[in-house]
Amino acid sequence: MIIRPERPITDWLPLTLKEVEKRGWDEVDVVLVSGDAYVDHPAFGTAVIGRIIESEGFRTAIIAQPNWKDDLRDFKKYGRPKYFFGVTAGCMDSMVNHYTANKRLRSNDSYTPGGEAGYRPDYATTVYTKILKELYPDVPVLIGGIEASLRRVTHYDYWKDQLMPSILADSGADLLVYGMGEQPLREILKLVKKGVPLNTIKNVNQVAYMQDSSEALPDDRGWNTVELASHEVCLKDKLKYASNFKIVEVESNKWQANRIIQKIGSDTLVINPPFKIMDEKEIDQSFDLPYTRLPHPKYKKRGPIPAYEMIKFSINMHRGCFGGCSFCTISAHQGKFIASRSEESIMKEVNEIVQHPEFKGYISDLGGPSANMYRMKGKDESICARCQAPSCIHPVICSNLDTSHKPLTKIYQKVDAHPEVKKAFVGSGIRYDLLVDDFNKNNQDGNHDEYMEQLVTRHVSGRLKVAPEHTSDDTLRVMRKPSFKYFKKFKQKYDKIQDKHELKQPLIPYFISSHPGCEEADMANLAAETKDLGFQLEQVQDFTPTPMTVAEVIYYSGVHPYTLQPIKTAKTREEKLAQNRFFFWYKPEFKNWIRSRLHKLNRADLADRLLASPKKKIQGNEPVGAVKNKKKRFR
User: Fold this and answer.
1) 328 in a labelled binding site
2) For residue 70, what are the β-bridge partners?
3) Is 91 annotated in some ligand binding site?
4) What is the pLDDT of residues 357-413, one digit of tens each?
5) pTM higher than 0.90, yes or no?
6) Would the annotation count 321 as a binding residue?
7) C-alpha to C-alpha distance for 245 and 153, rounded to whole angstroms
8) How do beta strands 30-34 and 60-64 pair?
9) Using N-to-C axis directions, what is the helix angle for 447-458 and 484-501, rounded to 10°?
């Protein structure tokens, strides 16, 4: 075993006043406040933002998981920063982090040492910002991260069961960066360095701010402006709220987007257009910053940080997702266009991982939001520049989309050949529909088959994750997912490769209950179809309406935001529980309930299918405990 010397504390960004003093600083330029523990790794937003600020020549320090209930000493420990505070709830929306789909308080927090719960408040971005504004009223506050990003306009909050205004109005922050923050942050830092106060910055892409409605909008960038129905109108009219969402989603997916405004009381919310997706050089620059790739040493005695343990030997190769699934926040936050790292940057990270003191030769994931979208983009990007579709693969795969898996296969093979790597697995879920020729017609040279052979024989760690999500075509259309028949075709292709190589690596299919458009009989049919395929489902979840998703809008308004046509949704706790129970047809305690319920629905045929002895050997799924970690899918 190689024993490596302990790294000096100055390799991390400062987390304590002593560390600031050790660097010889008499003040801090920017203080970052986060709801997560500080892990200096490119998968953790606070580390990325901190390292960018550092790379621009600023002195930055972190306040991680401050106590918001005592005398607020944590917020005061560095004193007043020279330029501004940056605030984030962390890698997850704090309410998704805290509560289950049934609004039960979770007993753990994956972003806290020891997995302990209770180290961040509900609505953390707002709570932290209000505290800072009270302590330092003249210091600007910049908010960002997924909680701020997805709550930037009027949004439905499932936990309060009410519409809430922009988080800028609730928190009192001066500026909000939405989406992946590297590009707007660097622009902001350049302006701040020139002496421009942060609370006067209004002309940077991908930021939002509030101003008095009597003030004229800045016109120096030539942006066209689209106005949403006001917050007050949305409170009275659910259809207006639903219509707002369509505008926000369409503008978020454009290369040349319009500026969006919305009245909130006597103020106007202004959302500037997003940046075009990061190019290879820009995304490499973000991943190549001098991370230690380790949690801060301060946490050593408090136990491991579960989220870090999950990803410490993984590599994120790209960002964005063009799936546009109705329930998912990935494209809303990261964008639908794919930003891919260079092969050189990825291999550089492989070389860093193998130096990790705990590395035993196994990389846990070569992936991304969807593992197999690396380097995929439009063949003719001028067509993409005009496109407004929220998904590139629903209802059909765009003929302009290059879905070649060759670059990904090449990366897998190169990592496989690394002398220090025994195995490199794909732990992220894959978009199986991209690999089904009947659905994806863009496989002229057979590169999908080459990819599948490489994947199945070399990179499956016992099981492969895929996400059909449902079996009902009506529900799947609402989800923006393909027909379940394509999952069956993928399974046939997957099983054929397994049989050829004498492998036994079960598929792990993900499914959701209570999604808009799903009725109880649909769930019973889902259970019966998956049972017939030999699955015993445990890696499942109940639908949670998260801000800025199509499904959340349907849940609240009762209509689809693109058609304004009604869609039925299970909303009561009893309705949601009933749908979820069908997943567990194999549990003795549910059998009588299932028979009774289906007879009431006049679906005795489904009761017979579900409760009869399985015709096929049932393959196990992940243990029930894994369900607790499903929340990570909505980062």
Assistant:
1) yes
2) none
3) no
4) 999 999 999 999 999 999 999 999 999 999 999 999 999 999 999 999 999 999 999
5) yes
6) yes
7) 9
8) parallel
9) 60
